[in-house]
Design brief:
- The protein has two domains: 163 residues, P-loop containing nucleotide triphosphate hydrolases (Rossmann fold), CATH 3.40.50.300; 198 residues, 3-Layer(aba) Sandwich (Rossmann fold), CATH 3.40.50.300.
- A hairpin with a 7-residue loop joins β1 and β2.
- 30% of the residues lie in helices and 24% in strands.
- By secondary structure, it is of the alpha/beta class.
Length: 480
């Protein structure tokens, strides 16, 4: 539903402008945004931050014209792009001017190979063949995508998919870049490259709107940081002013640190007692291509092991193999000293996947949690405590797929906590989480470890790894 709003021909010097905008998604009970007014000038880099579900993604969907055509609902107020009302524009009319990278890159792919995806937008916008080839080469070189060319998209890691999604937008050279959690699945090297690309875009005079929790790589890039609370703008300040605050003061505002966090890697040495999980000289292949080679490590009961490593190194393949979703080419996996075959491992392990949409099936958050307790009597106190601990009590009756990305992640973590499995695996559990919810997840994992669970966490989030893990190892290619 669209409210009748007088058109305005005056953008006020702003490239993106929201005037007293409120929005409620179709079927929603509360406003996702309430009376939001915002101006973003040409060449500005503005960062939206705040708790999961506070309205950051909704603002990005307004800026790229996806609301209300792709996300219907009740829209009040005025949204102007380059001085023109977006309600008078078809989505395809904006695509050459506004480029978007979504929180989940899968939702914007149209091809099965990376090269076709990189040129897809240019083909649809009618870019001449010669210019298309030039932009393709420039995109690959600038974004360091050489090792991702001519690849099957289905075989890419989460971070590699994110890099291709950004590349497909970069190749279009839009005036406005709208990025929703662009660092969520990127390794440290890729995040440094993203930072450099954003600085290049600023030098080119491009306008950048970023919804993001991880702020350290945007230190020196962002011009303004807007802190959202419950669908409203709580604070809109120059980024330099936040540098005056201590880390504790930033955390009190629900913001992540503006400085990088160093973590100490520990060697994957021999266990001093019978480990809960032992991986011995594990190798995994996809077809004839080796993905993992000669990987060995142990996890003791009560430990939280963090695993880092560059995108595409095989971290997700590792946890999928440990839980029996993929079969090893060679090597062994032991649970509590006993050799565990692939067919039996899936019954002893709980995996929280990188994309939570793959493991949510029920009609409500509460029924999802009851399903996790199938076979045992529901413990109402445990369900209530978990919902409170992960700030999900207010969405108890909501459909899981209507939640924000961070809320879905926290729900899957709650399901893992309810699981009777003694080995819990988490693949990028904080990619969409603000500081407060990152802290909550850290506390949940520590509590589970205290209960005798063994936990493995794959993450590029150094702030989280430093807070939650008892040891951290880095996965690297075997030197020949």
């Amino acid at each position: 539903m669209r409210s009748a709003v007088p058109a305005s021909s005056d953008g006020g010097g702003a490239l993106i402008e929201l005037k007293e905008v409120s929005f409620q998604y179709e079927g929603g009970e509360e406003d996702a945004l309430s009376d939001v007014s915002l101006q973003i000038g040409v060449g500005e880099c503005v960062v939206l931050s705040g708790n999961s579900g506070c309205g950051k993604t909704t603002i990005t969907r307004l800026a790229n014209g996806l609301i209300p055509d792709f996300y219907p609902g009740k829209l009040e107020g005025l949204v102007l792009i380059n001085g023109e009302d977006v309600l008078g524009k078809e989505p395809h009319e904006l695509c050459g001017f506004v480029g978007s990278v979504f929180q989940n890159p899968w939702t914007q792919f149209f091809n099965t190979d990376t090269d076709s995806e990189l040129v897809f937008g240019m083909e649809n916008c009618g870019v001449p063949c010669g210019e298309m080839h030039r932009r393709y080469e420039d995109t690959v070189k600038t974004l360091h995508l050489e090792n991702l060319c001519k690849r099957d998209i289905f075989q890419l890691s989460g971070g590699e998919k994110q890099s291709i999604a950004f590349g497909s937008v970069y190749a279009l050279s839009p005036e406005i870049y709208v990025l929703d959690e662009p660092s969520a699945n990127l390794d440290r090297r890729a995040i440094r490259r993203l930072r450099q690309v954003l600085l290049t875009l600023k030098r080119q005079g491009k306008t950048i709107l970023i919804a993001e929790h991880r702020l350290y790589y945007l230190n020196g890039v962002a011009d303004r940081i807007i802190r959202m609370e419950n669908g409203r703008i709580a604070e809109d300040v120059p980024a330099d002013r936040l540098l005056e605050k201590t880390v504790s003061e930033l955390h009190a505002l629900g913001l992540r640190s503006l400085w990088d966090t160093d973590i100490a890697h520990t060697p994957a040495g021999c266990p001093v007692r019978m480990p809960s999980l032992e991986v011995r000289k594990l190798s995994v292949r996809r077809g004839k291509r080796p993905v993992l080679e000669n990987v060995s490590f142990t996890v003791q009961t009560g430990e939280i092991l963090g695993i880092t490593g560059r995108n595409g190194i095989g971290k997700t393949t590792l946890v999928r193999t440990v839980c029996g979703l993929m079969k090893e080419h060679s090597g062994q996996i032991y649970f509590h000293g006993s050799l565990a075959e692939a067919s039996s491992r899936k019954h002893q392990v709980f995996l929280v996947m990188q994309d939570p949409n793959y493991q949510l099936f029920c009609e409500s958050v509460e029924s999802e949690m009851r399903l996790s307790l199938s076979g045992s009597a529901p413990d109402e106190d445990e369900i209530r405590e978990l919902l409170d601990a992960l700030d999900l009590s207010g969405v108890r009756e909501r459909h899981p797929l209507s939640l924000s990305g961070g809320q879905k992640q926290r729900l899957c973590i709650a399901l893992a906590a309810l699981s009777p499995a003694q080995l819990l695996l988490f693949d990028e559990p904080t990619s969409g989480l603000d500081y407060e919810n990152m802290r909550r997840v850290s506390d949940i994992l520590k509590n589970l470890a205290d209960q005798g669970k063994a936990i493995v966490v794959i993450s590029h989030d150094h702030e989280f790894l430093a807070k939650a893990c008892t040891q951290v190892i880095s996965l690297e290619k075997e030197k020949r």
